[in-house]
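User: Fold this; tokens only.

Assistant: Input:
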Amino acid sequence: MPTAAGVAASAMRRHPVVLAATAAVTDIRVAVIGGGVAQAGAVLLDPLRQAVRAHATLTFTHGIEILPAALGSDTGLVGAAAAVLEETA
């Protein structure tokens, strides 16, 4: 069974690769991070930013901003509520 530390380490290895690949395919300029990662602040966001810079090697992927979600840990909940409201409207 994986440990919490192992899961976190795996996520921190994979998220930068996924963000850089998404930027290459969709030309995003900002990635908004929510939940616990956003709440951890610079402790997790700064290493994530560094790793994304290392993986975002195409010139048009340079300078991706990684920002914490304004709604913090409620981001997913607000997004789910918005989706339900949109479906029922």
